[in-house]
Amino acid sequence: MVVSAASAHGTAEAAKQHAAAIENGNAIVVVKEFLENTAPDKVEAAARRLVAEDAVYISLNFDNPELKEIEPWTGTARGPQAFSSTFARVAKYWTIEDFTVTDMFGSGEHVAAFGSFTYRSVAVGTSFRSPFSIHAKVKDGKITYFQFMEDTYASASSFRQSGSWTVKTDPAAPAYEVGKAKR
């Protein structure tokens, strides 16, 4: 591939502008940069570069010991390591077939991101598609808060090999079975 001097300068200039946007704390650019670098071979460096030492990461809930047994990264954790270990574990437990950010917008230090993903359980082979939402805060070019939400029932169910629940949601209706065993 041949790159002309003008396009090489354009690429270098775009990279400079991107780096300046991160350094100046452009919240959307910082969160976008992190999300683009969550692959297992990139996430640790991205977390060190883009996440504050005291950052809070909330994954799916504040604290649920039973869910943590299924998905060990869930709950509240702190620091760049919480970010990198979460994304590394996700890639270990599931094959990421798709992860698409459809909308991202912000105001000041706040960023909201929305999209969907499709993951396939490595252990069981079950795939699921889920919407996701992120609320992040960025100060001085570093993520200080990151709350990630998804369809937790679908993600945990992707590991189910057998079993079901009998639930009763409506006081006036009979109980019913959900999560019937795979056939």
From TrEMBL:
Q: Which residues form the SnoaL-like domain?
A: 32-145
Which InterPro entries does the annotation name? NTF2-like_dom_sf, SnoaL-like
Q: What is this protein called?
A: Nuclear transport factor 2 family protein
In the record, what lineage is assigned to the organism producing the protein?
Bacteria, Pseudomonadati, Pseudomonadota, Betaproteobacteria, Burkholderiales
